[in-house]
Sequence to fold (441 residues):
Amino acid sequence: MLNILVLDPYPKAGHRICKDNAGAYGTANHYGNNLFCKFLNYFVKNSDLSPPLFAAQIIGELINSGHNAKYNQEIDNLNYDLFIIISSIVCHETEIKKIETLISNNKNVIVAGPFATSYPEPYLKAGAKVIFGEPDMFFHKFNLNLQEINNLPSRIKNFKIYDINDLSIPGWKQIFKFVKPRMKFLGKGNSIYIQASRGCPYPCFYYCTYPTQQGRKLRFKSVELIVNEMNYFYKELKVSNYVFRDPVFAISKKHTMDLCKKIIDNGIDFKLCIETHLNNIDEELSIMLKKAGVKLIYIGIESGVKKVRDESHRLSEENDKQIEKIKTLENLGILVKANYIIGLPKDTKETYLQTLEYAKLVNTSYAQFSVFTPYPGTPAYLDYKDKIKTQKLEDFTQWRLVFEHNNFSKSDISELITKSYTDYYLNYKWIVKYIKSKFLN
Ligand code: SF4
Fold:
């Protein structure tokens, strides 16, 4: 049995940093600089926070393999046999500093996660070994001794890929000893990230990080295992709020209908958040999602201007179809959070302002405006890598412009972020809707 620390470092910040977002590269929600945006920074940081699912899955695999695995965001002591670093772009330099400390103390360090897979060099240079690919597969049935760990190559590749139905229950119990994840938009109590599928076949992989590790081929978890996992944490940790972290939940209508039915038959009142593509939503599915306990749906609209979407390789519904589907969901009582992108490759100030007007017209319960970011590992990065304007990878927050855009300066983007959140949430139509939802429901 090995003593292992799963180390998940973060820089200090007054806003939310989540390593699970953006395909587990991580994002940092810095809403802007006026008083209202500072309130949003504080509010969201305190409402929605969790370590990444892949960290929980690694811990689950280690415990199931008979090891003593602990989660921490700091190095609590050096007496571990192995340190596993949870990598991200958004905390990259902080992670490197921790690795340098550990390596200078002659410790075994392995780095895991999609970002390290796509951008391994700085981690290797700092002296760590890097897992290329899904780390929970590498740690499933992990039976190496210290000597064998020492002998691993610095680039750990070509390990066995298991069926996702063979993986262990994630180690949230260990994580809850350190931090209690929350998603207050689902209600009181703690929340847990969960997965019904991996992989995404859609063409927006041009700029999206999800397929870089999970691939474009879909893999589904059995509905029995998903509901067993929810029941297990309901019993062990009293958790009834679940956030599905599939790249596109509901990508298979049959699997989703079966899952909803299983959750309904299970009889426990779970509250669910999912992220999906409007393409997959119809009225029948919307009704089932509501019955199964879905309270909040994230959808990507990206741009209100079809030409801008098309030029970014985005698969989209027409605008009137989007509005119709969103209305169906919200009329059923499901809250919708729409995600928009500022500064898509062909965006101009004019097209982005049209997007902002479109967002106000659609008037979903929540909206997020983030900045187009060419991430290492994606085809977009190859197009923009010579135009990257920052040396610090922690600047890749999705809330800053990190490259030289043909149509926007850094300060244009920063002003547009502040304008978007202020115009959207301080718009009378949104305020009236919010007040009605609070007092009439
Ligand atoms: S639909 Fe597009 S943006 Fe969403 S996960 Fe798939 S590739 Fe990424």
